[in-house]
Amino acid sequence: MRTFDWELLPHFLAVARAGNLRAAAQLIGANYGTVNRNIQALEASYGVRLFQRSRRGFALTEFGEALLPQAEAVERQVIAARKSVEGLDRSEAGKIRFSVSPTLAYSFVAPMIARFSDLYPDIDVELRLTSDIESIPDDETDVSLRGARTVTDDVVARKLLQFDLGVFASEAYLEKVFPNAGPKGEGLTWIGQPAQGPSYSSLSLEPFPNADMRHEVSDGYMRTRLVSLGVGMAHMPVLFETLFPNLTRVPGTEITAGQYLWLLLHSDLRKTVRVRRFVDSIAAEFQALRKDI
C-alpha cells in the first residue's frame, strides 16, 4: 500500500483552488518553483495527470476531480486534530489569528488590542484586516468579528450588540448643501456600497429617493472618512457617533435596526486559555461601548 505524502497535499489543494501556480503559491506562503515541483512529484507518485495545463492555468483532470474530495476530507481531519490539541492549551501565551473588517479595526479594535496587550504581554494577536468572511471551520482564522443577521456556521458565536443605523453627514455638509435641497433629496449625494460588497443591510435611498448615488465605497472606514469630509451622506451605524464627532445624524431621519455584531471562534478553541482571555476581553469592550450608545 502506497504511503500518502502529507507534505504534497496542501500544494495540490492550493492549485485546485487558485487555478494557477503563482496564485497557489501566494495562498499557502510558498514559492512558485516549490509548488510546481510538488505537483509534479504527486503526479509521478500516482502515475496520472492531476491537472490539465494551458495558458489559462491549471484545470483538474478526471483523476484530480476524484482526488479533490478525498484530499479535502483529509484536510478537515488534520484541522480538527490540531484544534482538539490546541483546545487543551492552558497557558496565557501564544498566537491568536483575529479576523476583523477595516471598518471596525482602526478606531474601535486597535485601542482594545492595545489594552489587551498590556494585560497579556505573552499573547500575540495576528490581526487580519479583511472585508471577506474568513472561515473558522476551514482554519482560515481563529477568532472573527463579523456583522450579520444570523450565524449558521459551525462555530461558537457570541452576540455583542446590534448595529442601529442612521443617516449621517458632516456638519459642514448639512450647513452648506441641505438648505438648497429638495424635499425628496434633490441636490443631495449618497455615498453607498457596491451591490456585490459587504453590507449591514439592504438599504434603499430612503428617506431621500431623489438624491444622487455618486460614490460607492466597499470599505466602511473610507466611507466614514468621506462623510466626515463633507462629500455626501450615508447610512451608518449609530455606534460611530461615539468615535467620529464630526458625524451628525441628519435631522428628521429615523433610526433603523441593522445587523448584529458577532464574535466567533472555533468550538475546539473555547477551552484554550489565551483564546478565552482574548474573546472575553473583546466582548467586554464592546459591551461597554453598547452602554455609551
Explain what you see:
- With 293 residues, the protein is of the alpha/beta class.
- Among the domains are: 9-86, Winged helix-like DNA-binding domain superfamily/Winged helix DNA-binding domain (Arc Repressor Mutant, subunit A), CATH 1.10.10.10; 162-259, 3-Layer(aba) Sandwich (D-Maltodextrin-Binding Protein, domain 2), CATH 3.40.190.10.
- The protein has helices at residues 9-18, 21-28, 32-46, 62-86, 102-119, 171-176, 220-228, 273-292, and strands at 51-54, 57-60, 94-100, 123-129, 143-148, 156-170, 189-192, 212-216, 234-237, 247-249, 256-265.
- Strands 3, 4, 5, 6, 9, 10 and 11 form a seven-stranded mixed sheet that branches.
- The N and C termini lie far apart (64 Å).
Short description, anyone?
The protein has 293 residues and is α/β, with parallel strands linked by helices. Among the domains are: 9-86, Winged helix-like DNA-binding domain superfamily/Winged helix DNA-binding domain (Arc Repressor Mutant, subunit A, Orthogonal Bundle); 162-259, D-Maltodextrin-Binding Protein, domain 2 (3-Layer(aba) Sandwich), CATH 3.40.190.
